[in-house]
Structures are given as C-alpha cells and as structure tokens.
Amino acid sequence: MGNRTVLVTGGSGFLGSKLCEELLKRGNDVVCVDNFYTGSKRNIRHLLGNPRFELMRHDVSFPLYVEVDEIYNLACPASPVHYQKDPVQTVKTCVHGAINMLGLAKRIGAKILQSSTSEVYGDPSVHPQVEEYWGNVNPIGIRSCYDEGKRCAETLFNSYRLQCDLDIKIVRIFNTYGPGMHPNDGRVVSNFILQALQNQPITIYGDGSQTRSFCYRDDLIEAMIRMMATPHEITGPINIGNPGEFTILQLAEMVIELTNSKSEIIRKELPADDPKQRRPDITKAKEILKWEPVTPLRKGLELTIEYFDALLKEDPEFCRS
After folding, report:
1. E strand or H helix at 251
2. Catalytic positions, written as ranges
3. Would the pLDDT of 66 be above 70?
C-alpha cells in the first residue's frame, strides 16, 4: 500500500483531507490539489510539515502535469449550497476535471478513482439503490449541474476504460459526515449540529419523514482506499455508504439530545427535486471490498459535535461566513 505517489484532487476538502492523512499514514507520498473554492487550509494544516506531503493550488478544470502512480479525483463542490452557487463551474469541474484527470492518468499510466455520488440516482424509484439502477434525474433542475455533471464524469471514465484500457475505479458516495465538514455547506448534519450548539431553531424541510443514510467519514475513506487496491478488472461503480436509514426528524432529535440543546424544531417547505429516500445497497462493497461501515450514527455524531464545538470556540466567524 505504501511507497506510491498519490494525487488527491479536492484534497483540502472534508473527505480529501482525511484521505490525504490516511494515505500518508500508510507510507505514501501525497500531492494535494485544490483551488479552495470549498476546501479549507485548516483541514490540512497539520499535514503541511510532513516532507511527504505537497500542496498545489490548482483548478482541475485546467490541465495538470505531474508524475504520480494513483489519482483520486474528489474535486467538486458536493453540497447544494455550494454547487448551486456557480452551476456552470460545477459542471466544468465535473466534466472538464474528469477529462483532465483521465488525460493525465492515460499519459502517465496511473490508476484513477472517481468519487461519484448517490445523486446519480436522482429521486429514486428503486429502494434501496443498487448500482444497476439507472436513476431518476431531472436534467434541467436546480440540482442537475451536480447530478448530471457526475453522471457525465462516470461516462467519461468508462469511455476511457473501453477505448484506452485505462485502470479506472468508480465509487458512488452516499451521505457522509464527520469532522472537517464545512460549517456552512447546507448539509443536514452540519446544519443541525451548529443550530443545536447555539440553541437556535433546527430547521427541517417538509414533515421530516424523508430518509437519509449517514456514513461516518473514516469508514468511507477506508472503502475508497480498498477500492483503489482492487485488480484492473474491477472498475465499479460500487456504492459506499451506510445502509442504516433514519428520518430527518430522527436525526434532529438525536442531535438535540447529544448536545443537550434547547433548540426547537421548525418546519419549512421542501425544496425542489429533494430526494424522499436515500439508502445504499452495499452488497457489492461487502463482497468485493470486504467492507462495511463500523461507526454507529450516535458515535459518529458525538465526534462531529466535538469538532464543531471546538470550531465555534476557535473561529466563530468561519462558522458564520
């Protein structure tokens, strides 16, 4: 596993920073690339003194020329707040970013992994979602810049495999949470925790009966590293996430309990194209990667609450920005 040079795009983001950290622990040299649109230097500052860690400010929608053995392509804003802010750039990051990273992998003979998303399934009519399901996506909705951008990236990866025999891997990431999340990414876990810690009203949309499955960050990173280590003939896509399913209301109540918060729950109208159900079928991950998540939601939330509690004390302005 060690002694490789590994490129991680989106490497200062919530998942990318933990991936960089884990790859270094396993003896690899790591080149972290990020344009800091949503990533934060605070996520990787503890790695900057490591001689095997290199940080490059770069936007993957432009070509990159480096020599590496493996590429993890995580670059893309992943929360609705951020990817809807600049939908054109989101599509460019997904599509041009994939083309540039695939071109790089082809030139240098590197193995490359694409972090795709459960959003390729849209508002699913199949539950839980299996990899063979083609999805139910609105191509011109407010989420389509991300949903369709990621779908096109999967097509590009598979096309490079068919045409160039490139060693590709595709993982479809379901809802993930943990320390390092951007405080204002609009995701339900970070929203609820910050609202609860400050005794502010907790906002749920609709009646809170829509379900999500929440995978702790460290569990997910382990699955990605295992996927990269699979033989050439295993390409994916493979779902990685936690099949435990909770309603949004259940999540809100658990966060209030764990933070001893005085927050009240208030309801707002459900946004357009918001999926009603989201839960991965991880049969393939269990069989092929010998992986399944091990962190219970309550334990993961406790660790994430600790992170945000410290962040609020250290840099309250960052939490409001």
Report:
1. helix 248-259
2. 146
3. yes
